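Q: Hi! First time doing this. I have a protein sequence and I read that you can turn it into a structure. Is that right? Here it is:
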Amino acid sequence: MSRLRVRRDFLYVAQGRKAVRPGVVIQAREGRCPPGEIRVGFTATRKIGGAVTRNRAKRRLKEAARLLLPLHGQAGNDYVFVARANTARRDWPALLDDVTLALQTLARPASGEMTD
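A: Yes, that's right. Below is the predicted 3D structure, encoded as structure tokens:
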């Protein structure tokens, strides 16, 4: 797993699919990363709180991604984890459930997409 750090990569992923849960929004898009690799980025806006709250939310999302992306992420995709207002204070098991369900939703083909 490698990190997204450049703004244009975040903007590229934002044009893809997203899954919204109470503790997190996860955006995903196939394409720019090397085959067989997963790239991930994290973001938290000032709307969710001050620097301490934003950093705590991002730390929690990083740990959730470290645990769950190898299990539920799709190789060849880029993911962006967006913190929500209650990410920093949400119960850890509930946050893990939110991330798991969001990743499983993104793994399914979107309605209207053709599958083999």
